[in-house]
């Protein structure tokens, strides 16, 4: 009986220690190792592909369908910023781009950079390369894209604005150099910390992102 009691006591101790460890050690989830999540080419294509056009329907009771092509105002805006340097965009133009882009196909990419730098980090190269392949795929080739850089709330407005612009430019240079994408098809803009994705957590990593937006298709909008 005494041996049985000791065995039971030892087993109880092991269970107690196990429970204590489970309460103090966080569960590990995929992507929780501190590395940015690499997105795939297919995910980018699906996110940026324009919605399919609805077939024309004849019938007296059917209201006129909306034209999927960009409006004249949108087209004029995009034409005015194509080929421009990031730093040349005024705050008004940046806000106009943001207003048009909000209803367009877009994707946020977790692309990280070296500390206090516009150099793309080694761990994010796979995502940038997937972006290059996606933008040159048959589904997306021929569109004009906005590449927008965003920072978290750390630092001053001027510093973050400059950093977001340099990082957007860095992505553009990589895509132009490595994937031969026309520079005029990539409109780069920096927003600094002015458009936090998670305002409740201004220092969160989710705010440090690059957003890519499909603004128009060359088959539906003239140069």
UniProtKB/TrEMBL annotation:
Residues 55-96 are annotated as: Disordered. Residues 100-218 form the OmpA-like domain. Residues 1-30 form the signal peptide. It is found in: Cell outer membrane. Residues 82-91 have a biased composition (Low complexity). InterPro entries: Bact_OuterMem_StrucFunc (IPR050330), OMP_bac (IPR006664), OmpA-like (IPR006665), OMPA-like_CS (IPR006690), OmpA-like_sf (IPR036737). Pfam families: OmpA. Keywords: Cell outer membrane, Membrane, Signal. CDD domains: OmpA_C-like. This is OmpA family protein. It comes from Bradyrhizobium barranii. The lineage of its organism: Bacteria, Pseudomonadati, Pseudomonadota, Alphaproteobacteria, Hyphomicrobiales.
